[in-house]
Every structure is written in C-alpha cells, then in structure tokens.
Amino acid sequence: MNWKGRDVISIRDFSKSDIEFVLKVAERLEEELKEKGPLEYARGKILATLFFEPSTRTRLSFESAMHRLGGSVIGFSSASSTSVKKGESLADTIKTVEQYSDVIIIRHPMEGAARLAAEVAEIPVINAGDGSNQHPTQTLLDLYTIKHAFGRIDGLTIGLLGDLKYGRTVHSLAEALAFYDVELYLISPELLRMPRHIIEELREKITIHETTDLEGTIPKLDVLYVTRIQRERFPDEEEYLRVKGSYQVNLEVLKNAKESLRIMHPLPRVDEIHPEVDRTEHALYFRQVFSGVPVRMALLGLTLGVL
Ligand code: CP
Questions:
Q1: Cβ(74)–Cβ(100) under 8 Å?
Q2: Which one of 22, 30, 122, 242 has the minimum C-beta count within 10 Å?
Q3: What is the number of the ligand 1 atom nearest to the C-alpha of 129?
Q4: Rounded to the nearest whole angstrom, what is the distance from the C-alpha of residue 129 to the centroid of ligand 1?
Q5: Would you say the CB of residue 60 lies under 6 angstroms from ligand 1?
Q6: 247-253 long-range contacts, Cβ below 8 Å, gap at least 24?
C-alpha cells in the first residue's frame, strides 16, 4: 500500500492490514520517541489544522505529533476568525490552505465535509470528525490503546455505552472492530441506538447484542467504551432532556465488573464516568489520550511520505 498522498476520511476506506500497519508504525514511533526524544522525519513540512468545531485532544495531539516529527503547524481553532465569516466556501478555504501546507486536518459539523475537502485538495486530507459520521483517527488510537492494554483485540468482549446514535467515535470504532474476532454489546437508551445500517453490517461479521441494561452487562465485559451524550447534535432539546444522564459509570456500577475490565472514553466527559473511577485500575481513558500522539505521528508521517 502506497500511503504517500493518501486521504484518511473514513475507517471504511481501510482494510484490516492497513489498520494493523498504522498501529505497527505508531508502536515503532512511540519506542523511537522514548529512546531519542523529538524526531526529524517531517522537517520542513507544514500541517494545517482547520477546526470548524471545538476540540481539545484531536487538535492538540495532531499539533504535538507534528512537532514531535520535526514539522510545523498553522491553522485555526474556530471558523469565527476566518473568511468563512465573510461567506467563503469550504472548497475555496481548502484550495487556499493547500497553497500554504503539505497536509490538512479538518473537523467540521457537516457530515461529508472531510470527503468534500479531500476531493478538492491535491494534498492529503485527514478527517478529525465530520458531524455524527466518522472520526477515523480516534478509532485508530482506540485500537492502539486496546492492543497496548491487552496485547490483542481478538477474543475480547467489548461494550459501547451511551450515545450510539450521534456519537461518531462509536460508529468508526464498531466498524473497525468488525475486522476482529470480538463480541460486541451495544448499550444505550432506546432513543440513542446505533443506526440500523451500521447494525446490519456488523451482524454479518461479528456477534452483537443490543441492550439498555448496563449493570447486567458489565460482568461480561473486557472493555467498556463510554461516550458522552452529544447534546449539540440533537435536533430537539426535548429529546436530549429525555436521555440526559441515562447512565453513569461509578464504583457502585462497577462492583460486579471483572478486575481486568478496562474503561475507555474518547473524552470530553460530562457526568457519564464519575471521577472516583479515575483512581481505579479500570480507568484507561488518560492512557487513551496519550495514544493520540504516536498514532497521529504515524498517520502524518505516512501520508506525507516521510516514514
Ligand atoms: N476525542 C476527541 O475527539 O476529543 P476532542 O473533541 O477534544 O478533540
């Protein structure tokens, strides 16, 4: 597979061997960083980060990744200070930014925005989240985190909890997990079930169970992947109020969990994991945050063709 110039838009564009390759490169870079400190692979290259929606982890970990590869970063964290405010189209913004950079990271509230950007740009475009659709780089770091914690993905029983309707991280992750020999529990309020088209695809490949019962499911799980209810994506505030606070993972809920259960969350969290869980061995979500740097270094280095 030639990675140079490749766009990263949807996890559906990847094969299992593509995914495994990125994880291997990330592992090598993590080791290399530990041994040598900051690297020089992307010296002279420029990353443009275009964030039309708020972000802490994705933007900063991409920036950190580019700095650790020896490259530079330009960009914006809100469209409000750009010429989008004057009515500039996304296509014109992309055609402009590619004159200044070698790779573009884009987060946008509109589903399909990253694909559109990739069609317009000559340089690689990486999707940092498009509406409720996909967040493929989060999925790669999630898989990397699971592999680091368990040494494998095959054979695990994994629960996805919370907003499975609007949460883009769980859409990408469920599709990627279908490449592996896993059993999947989809735990959500009725209103926030995983979209039917994803369920149908998953059923052809792996065993899945849909349930609203968190406490009854927890004892079966090796990994519990918790998500925030995506308030900003609800068309109707009334609908949000009906599901708000549906689940909270706390010490009481965890009393029947396996000792080896690991809890993940793409973050930010609101109230779906109580901070008392942070000091337990179950909490994997800050290691998960760390994984963003080596995985995004791998993606930047590969798409730039410098690794
Ligand atoms: N996980 C994630 O996408 O976090 P941010 O919204 O802070 O980037």
A1: yes
A2: 122
A3: 3
A4: 9
A5: no
A6: 247/161, 247/162, 247/187, 247/214, 247/272, 248/272, 248/273, 248/274, 249/161, 249/214, 249/224, 249/273, 249/274, 249/277, 250/274, 250/276, 250/277, 251/276, 251/277, 251/280, 253/214, 253/215, 253/218
Asked whether 167 lines ligand 1 (CB < 6 A), one says: no
Q: How high does pLDDT run on average in the chain? A: 97
- Is any atom of ligand 1 closer than 6 Å to the C-beta of 138? yes
Predicted pLDDT at 187: 98
Q: Specify the pTM.
A: 0.96
Low-confidence stretches of the chain (pLDDT < 70) are: none
Is 265 a catalytic site residue? no
> Is 230 near ligand 1, meaning CB less than 6 Å away?
no
Count CA atoms closer than 13 A to 289's CA, side-chain side: 11
Query: Of 49, 51, 52, 55, which is best to mutate to test ligand 1, by the most ligand atoms within 8 angstroms of its C-beta?
Result: 55
Q: How far apart are CA 137 and CA 9, in angstroms?
A: 9
Residues 55, 268: Cα–Cα separation, whole Å: 9
Catalytic residue among 6, 45, 49, 58: 58
Which atom of ligand 1 is nearest to 61's Cα? 8
Return the residue whose CA atom lies nearest to atom 1 of ligand 1: 266
